[in-house]
Structure to design on (510 residues):
């Protein structure tokens, strides 16, 4: 991501700070402190709290707060604060030191807060805390729009000074970069454009949408993450099953351990046991050295088994033993090994039907579904969630492809909502990225969306009901024909994985 601040090494002002205030880290950095979390599905409240802690320590302050702008009212709302006395602070536009900073876009450093007319003492009255000195800097995006304010109170060295103000400015800029790398900023911008009141409390990074179905998913994720229970994540291809698995890992007690993924769709049945449990030297031709499997690699962390329904029956009993007892043997080995691992599994298949056909062990089925998280298909999440996801991906790919800030036209939004999204969120993401690349102005219109023309609603007299499988088969085969049999390209256009396409074609005898 890079550090946007200037080179401070030769700055005499910075050197004065370093000499007068010795620190083990002469260049405290928000990005260094939280950078590893930005790409992860972490709780955004925790991320903001870590930023506040880093800033308070760097500036030798007593307390700190991150305020974010309410897009409808222009108020500042405290979103992360070392504020044990009250739950939340809301400042009207221009109110208090933070309000003045948000309005002007410039930092303020007040050695004596109570002597300044901009200081609002009501918060001290409510909390019983005495504010002596204040330092606040705007959190502004790369376009200069103020997203919020970073504020610290009461320097432990007496008063905040000019060098502290310069450092606060840099840390606020880094905070803006950090926030722009999360799903929080796209949500704030969307609410600003739509006039939706009061941005919600930050949730889990990369989780976008407020539909009741997604609210239930978030509740289950939080509850499951706090335990070591085995979790089964279910849903169609492209609904975000791996996202849920990662959120469970990064928000749980094993977050400091590894997150290891095994994708059962990418491995031949003969290699799956080796992938899971490893092998001993000489176990088979070419096994020239001992190799650990994914179960060992996940020690102390989480093992994510994607598409567990593809696991061969003979291997299911060994996986059951591992989940129950944490014990296994490497291929070609006789020594029983142990690994302290949490298992999260995912599938798009009907495991109950597979159990009934004898294709999936019933005891394994009940063992992996201790906690079950069912992800809704995108078409069932409603127009609001589709719009929010589109806005989110628009912001992500506009930044990636250096397009500036983009918006979606009403006609494009109508097309997005009307589409059935057989490939779910993955298909929507690819559609929006394509539109960002094709768009030459600042507005993504319907013509930029790589979507099939909407099918007119048939009249009652001409509509002939057909099995859904027939309609899907016809559409998939037509897409495959249009790309001259190129399965990778067909899968991309359909918004599904190549292995998923292969399974569908195999099931249809193609």
């Amino acid at each position: 991501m890079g550090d946007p601040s200037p080179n401070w090494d030769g700055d005499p002002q910075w050197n004065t700070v370093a000499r007068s205030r010795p620190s083990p880290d002469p260049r405290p950095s928000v990005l260094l402190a939280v950078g590893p979390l930005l790409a992860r599905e972490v709780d955004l409240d925790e991320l903001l709290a870590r930023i506040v802690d880093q800033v308070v320590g760097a500036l030798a302050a007593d307390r700190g707060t991150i305020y974010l702008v309410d897009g409808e009212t222009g108020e500042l709302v405290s979103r992360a604060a070392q504020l044990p006395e009250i739950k939340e602070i809301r400042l009207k536009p221009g109110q208090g030191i933070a309000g003045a900073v948000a309005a002007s876009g410039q930092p303020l450093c007040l050695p004596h807060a109570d002597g300044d007319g901009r200081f609002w003492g009501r918060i001290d009255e409510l909390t019983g805390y005495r504010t002596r000195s204040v330092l606040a800097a705007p959190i502004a995006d790369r376009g200069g729009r103020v997203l919020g304010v970073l504020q610290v109170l009461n320097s432990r060295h007496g008063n905040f000074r000019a060098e502290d103000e310069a450092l606060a400015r840099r840390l606020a800029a880094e905070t803006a970069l950090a926030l722009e790398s999360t799903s929080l900023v796209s949500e704030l911008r969307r609410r600003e454009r739509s006039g939706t009141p009061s941005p919600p409390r930050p949730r889990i990074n990369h989780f976008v949408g407020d539909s009741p179905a997604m609210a239930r998913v978030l509740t289950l994720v939080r509850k499951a993450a706090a335990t070591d229970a085995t979790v089964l994540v279910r849903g169609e291809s492209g609904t975000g099953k791996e996202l849920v698995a990662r959120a469970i890992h990064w928000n749980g007690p094993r977050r400091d351990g590894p997150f290891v993924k095994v994708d059962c769709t990418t491995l031949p049945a003969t290699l799956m046991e080796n992938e899971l449990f490893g092998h001993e030297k000489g176990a088979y031709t070419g096994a020239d050295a001992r190799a650990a499997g994914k179960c060992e690699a996940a020690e102390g962390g989480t093992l994510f088994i994607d598409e567990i329904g593809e696991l061969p029956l003979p291997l299911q009993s060994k996986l059951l033993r591992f989940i129950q007892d944490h014990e296994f043997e490497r291929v070609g080995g006789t020594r029983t090994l142990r690994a302290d691992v949490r298992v999260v599994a995912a599938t798009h298949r009907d495991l109950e039907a597979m159990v009934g056909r004898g294709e999936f062990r019933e005891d394994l089925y009940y063992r992996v579904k201790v906690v079950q998280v069912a992800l809704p298909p995108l078409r069932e999440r409603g127009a609001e969630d589709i719009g929010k996801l589109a806005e989110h991906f628009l912001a992500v790919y506009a930044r990636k492809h250096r397009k500036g800030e983009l918006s979606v036209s009403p006609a494009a939004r109508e097309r997005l909502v009307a589409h059935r999204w057989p490939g779910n969120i993955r298909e929507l993401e690819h559609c929006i990225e394509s539109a960002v690349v094709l768009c030459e102005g600042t507005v993504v219109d319907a013509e930029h969306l790589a979507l099939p023309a909407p099918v007119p609603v048939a009249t009652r007299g001409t509509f002939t009901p057909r099995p859904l499988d027939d309609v899907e088969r016809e559409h998939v085969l037509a897409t495959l024909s249009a790309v001259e049999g190129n399965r990778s390209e067909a899968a991309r256009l359909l918004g599904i994985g190549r292995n998923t396409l292969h399974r569908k074609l195999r099931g249809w005898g193609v």
Observations:
- The first strand starts at residue 61 and ends at 69.
- Residues 91 and 438 are 41 Å apart (CA to CA).
- The domain at 212-374 is CATH 3.40.50.300 (Rossmann fold).
- The radius of gyration is 27 Å.
